[in-house]
Amino acid sequence: MAGRGAGNEVRVRISRLDHLVLTVADAERSAAFYRDVLGMREAPAEPGRHAVAFGPSKINFHEHGHGSAPHAQAPTPGGADFCLVLEGTTLGEARTELAAHGVPVEEGPVTRVGALGSMTSLYLRDPDGNLIELAVYAGEDDD
Description:
- By secondary structure, this protein is an alpha/beta fold.
- The protein has one domain (19-137): 2,3-Dihydroxybiphenyl 1,2-Dioxygenase, domain 1, CATH 3.10.180.10.
- The chain contains 2 helices and 8 strands, in the order E-H-E-E-E-E-H-E-E-E.
- The strands form 2 sheets. Strands 1-4-3-2 form a 4-stranded mixed β-sheet, covered by helices on one side.
- A hairpin with a 2-residue loop joins strand 6 (107-114) and strand 7.
- The model has no long low-confidence stretch (mean pLDDT 91).
């Protein structure tokens, strides 16, 4: 099996996600959504590109048909589905902020299992239709 050395030990160790790339119809619009609705901060990007950051991670926005190589095999706006963990914000506060921006909650709150255990989540979509799960781990939300 790839990544396994002698004695079946794993040689590759991943510590965290640095960044992800979302293919979008309008990078400026997407950056504004993630900044203004989800509270992310502007992040350094290549000239003419847009990016936002949260915690130690970053999202780069590539406009459909204008992404740099290499890129995903079939980059498509609205093709992503990912979970973001809230910090210092309850799901109720998140729902209120989403409503203030006219962003509907598609589902939730619902209980899910995340990388660290049980969590409660809300689901919404960004301007391209990407599915975003906002979550808090058990015991971290006072709603």
